[in-house]
Amino acid sequence: MFTQGARRKALAAIAVLATASLAMTACGKSSSSSSSKVLKLWHYESADSAMGVAWNQAIKEFEQSHPGVTVRFEEKTFEQLQKTAPMVLNSSNAPDIMEYNKGNATAGLLAKQGLLTDLTPAVTQHGWDKKITGNLATTSRYSNGVMGSGDWYGIPDYAEYGMVYYNKDMFAKYGVQVPTTFDEFTAAMDKFVEAGVTPLASAGAEYPAQQYLYNLVLSKADQNWVNQ
Asked: What is the rounded distance in angstroms from the CA atom of residue 200 to the CA atom of residue 198?
């Protein structure tokens, strides 16, 4: 996940998915001396969040497995990185590794502008392409700035899962069995619809609803259809 690019430029890339974000490599010089090296990391996760805790643990394990290397973390906000990334990555102040958003207009644009390193050799060497597949790999690869294929410019640092809360009394009232598989879940929703009951509700205005619809599309379509 941590790489150092050619000509003494340390570059790293992390991309986002569904809302997954990517660890990306930028064109900045690593600080180093004969006895120690510094790896500069920027991310926007709060310290007490699940992602922030994971980042802290990753830093600790990386330093333990790489004696003589110190990870220097600088906390940024999501808005800071979105607004200033192209400018910062094209300067001597660029971090070695940065968390950034996936997509053609974000990570894809940085890759197209030559501000990220190609991680494909490292991905192949460490076998990450065997562990990160399917839709996760889609968000990590860009060809001329377009997400979905080509070279690897990032590694997803987290993914998301959906959770459903259900009302036991409603299931009992309408004689619907609590599902344990997706097919059973669909059948249960159909029974509620037949009884005139709206089976699902979503909180959070339009934001999670968009993700639900996108996941539905991905479950029914192949990658060629998504690309088009």
From this structure: 6
